[in-house]
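Example 9 (inverse folding). The structure is encoded as follows.
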C-alpha cells in the first residue's frame, strides 16, 4: 500500500515539475493609492508657480482605481509585460495664495476648478536569463508612458488654461518570480530611468512586490505594493515646466493564467 502511494506521489510531483509556464497571464483588481504631486507650468512671460496639486488645489490624496497587469510569453525565456490604470482627479477649491500657471494669474481667494487627466501605460520586454521550474529572474527594458491633461479654470469662467502631454519614458530593470510552495509565489520588479535628452530631463523609479495564492491551476488571488516616484522637466509647446509626483499603493487582484 505504501508503495502504491509512493508511486502516485512521484507521478504527481513529476507532472507538476513538468508543467509548462503560462503563455498568457492577466491580473485585474483594485489599486489603493496615496499620492503627492508637485507641478509647475511656465509661460512666455517666465517661470510659473510651484503648485502642490493636493494642498493648493484640493485634489484627493487617496483614491481607489481599477488596474490591469499582465504578460505574453512568446518564447521560453522571452515575454512582453504590460500595465494600465487611470489616476485622473478633479477638484474645486478657493485658493489661499496667488498661482501663476502658463502666464495666467489666479489671485488669492479665487475659486479654481482643476481637472487632471492622468493615465499610466507600461510596456516592457523581459529576457529571463535565469530560469527554473516556474521561477525566474529576468532583465527588462521598456516604456513608462504618462498621458497627462491638466486644465485650470477660475470662478465665473474668466480664465481657462489647458495643457496636454504624453511622456514616453524609457526604463530598464529586473523582474522575477519565486514559487516557494505548491500554491504560493512571490513576484517582484524594479525599474528606473534617468534621462537628459530632447524635451525631457529627469528620473523615475518604479518598484513592485506581490504575493500570489493559486486557487486552481489557472486562477490565483494576490496582494501587492507599488511605489513610483517621477521627477521630470519638460520643454514642449503645450507643456513647459516641471512634474514631480509620487504614488504609493496596495493592490488586490485576481490573476488568470492561460
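The amino acid assigned to each position is listed next.
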Amino acid at each position: 500500500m505504501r508503495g502504491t502511494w509512493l508511486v502516485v506521489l512521484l507521478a504527481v510531483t513529476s507532472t507538476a515539475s513538468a508543467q509548462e509556464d503560462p503563455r498568457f497571464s492577466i491580473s485585474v483588481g483594485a489599486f489603493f493609492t496615496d499620492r503627492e504631486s508637485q507641478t509647475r507650468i511656465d509661460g512666455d512671460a517666465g517661470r510659473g508657480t510651484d503648485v502642490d496639486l493636493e494642498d493648493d488645489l484640493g485634489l484627493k490624496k487617496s483614491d481607489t482605481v481599477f488596474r490591469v497587469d499582465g504578460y505574453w510569453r512568446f518564447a521560453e525565456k522571452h515575454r512582453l509585460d504590460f500595465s494600465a490604470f487611470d489616476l485622473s482627479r478633479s477638484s474645486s477649491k478657493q485658493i489661499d495664495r496667488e498661482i501663476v500657471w502658463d502666464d495666467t494669474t489666479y489671485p488669492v481667494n479665487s475659486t479654481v476648478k482643476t481637472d487632471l487627466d492622468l493615465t499610466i501605460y507600461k510596456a516592457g520586454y523581459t529576457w529571463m536569463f535565469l530560469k527554473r521550474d516556474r521561477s525566474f529572474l529576468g532583465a527588462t527594458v521598456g516604456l513608462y508612458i504618462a498621458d497627462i491633461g491638466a486644465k485650470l479654470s477660475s470662478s465665473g469662467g474668466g480664465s481657462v488654461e489647458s495643457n496636454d502631454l504624453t511622456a514616453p519614458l524609457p526604463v530598464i530593470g529586473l523582474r522575477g518570480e519565486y514559487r516557494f510552495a505548491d500554491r504560493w509565489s512571490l513576484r517582484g520588479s524594479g525599474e528606473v530611468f534617468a534621462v537628459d535628452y530632447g524635451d525631457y530631463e529627469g528620473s523615475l523609479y518604479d518598484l513592485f512586490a506581490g504575493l500570489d495564492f493559486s486557487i486552481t491551476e489557472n486562477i490565483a488571488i494576490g496582494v501587492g505594493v507599488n511605489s513610483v516616484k517621477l521627477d521630470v522637466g519638460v520643454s514642449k509647446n503645450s507643456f513647459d515646466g516641471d512634474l514631480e509626483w509620487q504614488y504609493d499603493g496596495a493592490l488586490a487582484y485576481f490573476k488568470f493564467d492561460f
